[in-house]
Amino acid sequence: MKKIISLLTVAILIVTMLAGCTPEEKSVSTDGSTSMSKVIGALGEAFEQESGIALTYNATGSGSGIEAVSAGRCDIGLSSRALKAEEEANGLEATVLAYDGIAIIVHPDNPVKDLDLEKIAKIYKGEIKNWKDVGGKDAEIVVIGREAGSGTRDGFESITDTKDSCDYRQELTSTGDVITTVGSNPDAIGYASLASVKDSVRALTVGGIEPSEATIKDGTYVVQRPFVLVTKKDAKLSKSAQKFFEFIKTDAAKEIISETGVVPAN
User: Fold this and answer.
1) CA 194 to CA 214: how far, in whole Å?
2) C-beta of residue 262 within 8 angstroms of C-beta of residue 227
3) Rounded to whole angstroms, how far apart are CA atoms 261 and 42?
4) Are residues 207 and 235 in the same domain?
5) Which of 151, 164, 235, 252 is deepest in the core (most CB within 10 A)?
6) What distance in Å separates the CA atoms of residue 90 and residue 25, rounded to the nearest whole number?
7) Residues 220 and 106 in one domain
């Protein structure tokens, strides 16, 4: 019996060597930001075609992704906000993959085209409650946002200086839900990753600046945040995860990142 087991073990090792990778090299697990679904999906598909290594994506939100990598439940956490000081102190580090604009979105029929940062903040804090006060029709503003722990919410509230003071009508758990809700309500306003915006909503200009790759890159569009890959500082990456980090530095990966509507960090 021992001889048979030994022969089976040798056979498995030979097959693995011929395949060119160990079992741990066959996949990379990621967990986190729903806003990063488009860019991670595109990069994962290209990475698998090039390397034969699958990249899995669990869309749970930035906070959950950070917790998952910290607890060792995934190779890479995905966050659409910068790491907090306490998270870095707990042994996590961030690699910025790209920069994304947070679009301020309304229903396509809404006549309002532009809001400055101050008016956006006042709307979200409940200080401006009617569209007529910002050049729109006489209708109550329905304020839509993301759930606590969302990287998009954290980024938006940090930029608009509205943290812990927003008066939300609804707090939704994904970028897609925000877009769907705003797209079905002519009186709603919301925020979402620019890369995820669809024709069912319209992105406002902010202070006269349209959200685009060019305005995100030059910093003139101010409502923007990083897309971050989160890993443990002192833990060695698996070979497959290391290969993914090498892949995202290539010119091909940068082109893919740009095609998804966000700006490559390097």
Assistant:
1) 13
2) yes
3) 11
4) no
5) 151
6) 27
7) yes
Same domain, 162 and 132: yes
8 — pLDDT class (breaks 50, 70, 90): very low
Confidence of residue 7 (pLDDT cuts 50, 70, 90): very low
**DSSP, res 73:** S
Count of CB atoms situated within 10 Å of the CB of 47: 25
Rounded Cα distance, 266 and 262, in Å: 12
How far, in Å, CA of 186 to CA of 108, rounded?
A: 8
* Whether residue 71 is found in the same domain as residue 124: no
Instruction: Provide the pLDDT confidence category of residue 13 given band limits of 50, 70 and 90.
Output: very low
Determine, yes or no, domain membership for 2: no
CATH number at residue 58: 3.40.190.10
- Do 157 and 122 lie in one domain? The reply is yes
Tokens 């089976």 sit on residue: 8
Whether 205 is covered by a domain: the verdict is yes
Does residue 1 sit within a domain? Answer: no
Compute and round to an integer the Cα radius of gyration of the chain. Answer: 22
Contact, 217 vs 258, CB < 8 A? no
The one-letter code for the residue type at 211 is P
The number of residues making up the chain comes to: 266
Confidence of residue 149 (pLDDT cuts 50, 70, 90): confident
Residue 141 is given by DSSP the state -
Residue 108's φ and ψ, nearest 5 degrees, are -55, -25
108, 179 Cβ separation under 8 angstroms: no
How many other C-beta atoms lie within 10 A of the C-beta of residue 205?
15
Tokens 């892949």 locate to 247
Domain check: are 118 and 41 in the same one? no
Residue with tokens 């091909």: 252
**What is the C-alpha to C-alpha distance for residues 229 and 226, in angstroms, rounded to an integer?**
10
